[in-house]
Structure prediction request, 292 residues.
Amino acid sequence: MMIKEIEVKNVITKSNLPVCEYSVNPYVGCTHGCRYCYASFMKRFTGHAEPWGSFLDVKHWPEIKNLKKYAGKELFIGSVTDPYLPQEEQYRRTRFLLEQLVGSGAKISIATKSDLIMRDLDLIKNFPDARVSWSVNTLDEDFKNEMDHAVSIERRLTAMETFHKAGIRTTCFVSPIFPGITDVKAIIDRAKGQCNLIWLENLNLRGSYKAVIMEYIQGKYPKLLSLYREIYQQGNRRYWELLDAELKNYAAEIGLDYAKNDDSMKRPFDALPVVVNYFYHEQIKKSARNVY
Prediction:
């Protein structure tokens, strides 16, 4: 792993993402090494020739000026990196960021695959309407280990429960859903009592990792290869349409709302979670040059 510290002028950048006004990434690159990582296409903007997942730039930035400009604005922390990588324990850039933002009135959303975030629960409690999401696309730890180097699914779910009990709005981000592999219903059942929102996102293969995943499926799940070719080589969306209908019916069966838009912030904290379908969304790539 190649790690270096860099100076940047500002860690907060305007964003075109539909979920926030600003994106914040305390690191460049990510050491989780997820095989399916959508952010791997960002490498072309980093100046790195090394493979995605093998380098990390630790950002240092000056004091954040004019904090009041962020009052009431949504800041998404971790759009193209995990702000709680193992290296955060040493460098503490995300904690430093939160310490700077306390009292600004900013609304923060944090995306992670880690339980290191529990270290900063004391700080995150100070932000109005803070929300934290954990990526959980399987309950099978062996499959998880083949896909990423982040902490176990059980540790993620434990962290989610801890934050939920502390009164922080939590999201179970079921992403990416691997056709024929991810048991979405099982994940919903496991997480529904400890989150306010369940996001669903399909596996969207593109760029260099498309061949990697297709080779993996051919080797590990050969019976699914024809399905993956149908979806990712022929562009057939039938699988996702059927899954959408199936999950909508399932949500109704267990008393959960199934929506196309995220309205969880308008719901009482103790309400049952709402399931939101984000199949097909392509918004992340559109703001590629703005997220660092």
Observations:
- DSSP finds ten helices and twelve strands in the chain.
- The CA atoms of residues 115 and 156 lie 6 Å apart.
